Amino acid sequence: MARRQTLVQLTDELLALLDERAARTGRSRSELIRTAVERELAEDREAAIDAAIVEGYRQTPSEPDSWAKASAKRSIVAEPW
Question: For residues 42 and 46, what is the distance between their CA atoms, to the nearest angstrom?
Fold first, then answer.
């Protein structure tokens, strides 16, 4: 995947922590920043997917579902009550 360079401003404290982590893990600053951004954005994507799933469960069919009705009847008849 193609990459583009961008400028990110960090405090001296964040830069020191970033450099410390990079040295400890053997990863570059860029890799650590990319990973952090991907993780942050993934939360948004996951929240959107969750919201879509919830919305799908809230919807009700506009027409009766004859297949579902027949299946429910067969299930009830099969019960030994």
Answer: 6
pLDDT in tens, 15-73: 999 999 999 999 999 999 999 999 999 988 999 999 999 998 888 777 777 888 888 88
Query: For the CA atoms of the chain, what is the radius of gyration?
Result: 26
C-alpha–C-alpha distance, residues 50 and 56, integer Å: 10
The CA distance from 38 to 44, in Å, is 10
Euclidean distance between CA atoms 64 and 67, whole angstroms: 9
Q: Are the C-beta atoms of residues 19 and 29 closer than 8 Å to each other?
A: yes
The C-alpha atoms of residue 58 and residue 48 are separated, in whole angstroms, by 15
What amino acid is encoded at 75 in this protein?
S
**Tokens standing for 21?**
């982590």
